[in-house]
Amino acid sequence: MHHAISTHLFVNHRLSTALLDRILNAGVDLVELFCARQHLDYRNEDQIREVAIFLKDVPLRVHSIHLPMFSDDCWGKTGPRSVIDIASPSRANRIAAVDEAKRALDLADAFPFSYAIQHIGVGFDDEWSLHKVDAAFDSLDELRNFARQRGVEVLVENIPNALSSAKKIVEFFDSTHLNLGVCLDTGHANMMEGFDEAFNLLENRIRSLHVHDNNGVDDKHLFPMVHEGGTLNWERTMKRLRTLPSTVPLLLELKEDPSMSDPLDRVKDVFENLEKQS
Questions:
Q1: What structural domains and CATH numbers belong to the chain?
Q2: pLDDT tens digits for 105-150?
């Protein structure tokens, strides 16, 4: 499998060409850019230009972007208006959320990428309702068409809430007939129905991955087989992941650990350990 990493690992730092160069030198050939304004400010033309110029001259390809979760640069701390929720029953809030996602999708005008990862709902406590399902359908239908004009496919990610567990995603597609692919998140599956069931439910729609570990309760984005406390069975998980098409990379979505002097060195360990699993 191709090795890829999300810049979520460095989400609290500005995405610079120096950081991208470090990722490239870690032996990674594909990257997912995490759209958070303190990291990759998709509204900042200077930063976008800097990244685009760098990517033209190096063998590092952008596989995907993660669409923004907040419109501010501090994880929504400026207030509820900064939360991006495409499933909001409020029409005004939904339109604002879609518009913000479109701003990020416009990155395709600066550099190419294949996929854009989108959440349905926000917090883990988000409850299911028909109004939210209708709002999510309207949003995703609009974003799908907007992205398609830019050569990008929108993927829905399974997250641990009542709207978008693997089971709920299947129900959503069945009821809306919205034909989208998915990004399978191993850690989120581990917190919900379990990886095996999530994989079985979503297998035919998987176009990308978010690979990380946790204890089944807390969304810690642990380094697989490096951090203690993870509960995923990586031998079984890798056996299933290897059955996916070759276009689906082994993409790590990890959380920064202040105790690591160079997390990219440990990323190399993660890939090596995962590849050893039969």
A1: 3-276 (3.20.20.150)
A2: 999 999 999 999 999 998 777 889 999 999 999 999 999 999 999 9
Give mean pLDDT, residues 175-204: 97
Separation between Cα atoms, residue 163 and residue 155, nearest integer Å: 15
Does residue 179 contact residue 173 with C-beta atoms inside 8 Å? yes
* Mean pLDDT score of the chain: 96
Report, as an integer, the average pLDDT of 199-211.
98
The predicted structure's pLDDT at residue 125: 77
